[in-house]
Amino acid sequence: MRKKFVLGNWKMNKTVKESIEAVNELVELLKDYEGEYIWGIAPPFTSLFAVSSSKGKVRFLLGAQNCHHEKTGPYTGEVSPLMLYDIGVDFVILGHSERRIHFGETDALISRKVRAVLDFGMIPVLCVGERLEEREGGATFEVVKAQLSGSLALIEPNLISSVVIAYEPIWAIGTGRTATPKTAQEVHQFIRETLVGMGADASEVSVIYGGSVKPDNIRELTEMSDIDGVLVGGASLKPESFANIIHFAK
Ligand code: PGA
Q: Between β-strands 4-9 and 164-167, what pairing exists: parallel, antiparallel or unpaired?
């Protein structure tokens, strides 16, 4: 049985104090949650250590939004997977479209990061997704396939099921424009088929959806057979809306 996730990506938001307050609220709202979704949040780097001390209170996953692929070294301004592992980080978001677009991350670089995160026993959450022009030009499958094969190039087929894939169509991120459940399902199914082609046991791979997920569209999205959860940006910043997403996920 593959695992199901609701993960929050706080992006470049919240001070340490705000992060602690939000986590305390989430812990309170979700302390009796008994559903099948594993929930987690990815605060900014500066808040990770402070937030990690709340992990004992209820079970949730702590995530980082990026990391370097080397363990240590002369990489000014970077944070290594060892450092994240050291403070109890469970998952690392990699290849987010904002990192691909604003920081020039390529599939080859992302692949090294996926490798490093797996080597430290953390969960890579690998983001893939097409731009609006690519969707309109009928290139969605081609783009997603190239991202998968490039970003997983250094991963043995039997380890691919340890990676969570997040399908995040770029035109749906922060725009309020969600992919319809049917559109998302089509791509999720395609992702699973592509992973089979790469030799993975794709029935074991969790494929989650991201892009304007909110409490009022979570149910229909998670009703789809190949959607194993969601990666939430904007709506994860308010504890109440994030908790509602978790509660309403089917
Ligand atoms: P959004 O962001 O939910 O604000 O659209 C999703 C993401 O970027 O992971």
A: unpaired
User: For residue range 172-181, what is the model confidence (pLDDT) as tens digits?
Assistant: 998 888 889 9
CB distance 185 to 220 below 8 Å: no
For residues 182 and 174, what is the distance between their CA atoms, to the nearest angstrom?
Answer: 20
96 is catalytic: yes
Question: How many A from CA of 72 to the centre of ligand 1?
Answer: 30
Residue 230's beta-bridge partner residues?
A: 6, 209
- pLDDT (0 to 100) of residue 142: 98
Q: Read off the amino acid at residue 172.
A: A
The helix/strand/coil state of 176 is coil
Compute the distance from residue 157 Cα to the ligand 1 centre, in Å: 28
Residues 204, 207, 213, 217, CA torsion sign: negative
Cβ pair 67, 101 in contact under 8 A: no
- Active site annotation includes 105: no
Q: Whose CA is nearest to atom 9 of ligand 1?
A: 233
User: What are 147-170's pLDDT values in tens digits?
Assistant: 999 999 999 999 999 999 999 999
Ligand 1 pocket test target in 6, 9, 11, 216 with most atoms within 8 Å of CB: 9
